[in-house]
Amino acid sequence: MLGAVVLVGALLTQWAALSRLPLPGSPPDLLLVLVVAFALVAGPAPGTLGGFVTGLLVDLGADHQLGRTALTYTLVGYLAGRVQYGPRRSILRSLLVVAATAAVGVSASALVGLLLGDPRIDLPAYRQSMLSTVPYCVLLTPLVVPVVGFVARRGDLDPLRR
Question: Which residues contact 84 (CB under 8 A, 6 or more apart)?
């Protein structure tokens, strides 16, 4: 239940606040960082499922084809979940994984948009998105990962545990 509250809160924060900030480049992607943090804590299978659900929710409110963000977040959730996170969690490792998966997410989203004929996708837009989204995601990491870790310690991220 707490995991759903965190997801809905992050979704509302992304749509109502972060997307509207007058920052240079693309807005910060709080939901991508949330998917990565969840995958780091829970592993590749839950990370993949969490990425799909989160992406699908984003797609429902987006102005592009349904499933585009779901595909991107699913890939990001799987890749981040493949990282062996171990008992000693490091914020540096989290920052590196978020940076790498944010770059993969931007690239995957641009590639899917290009394949689907989105006229907004071109090299300058891709470069601008890469140069802004990745640093913004890294800046959000120290705020998001501890929240997901707290939810995980409460045992709320395990859907089989009730």
Answer: none
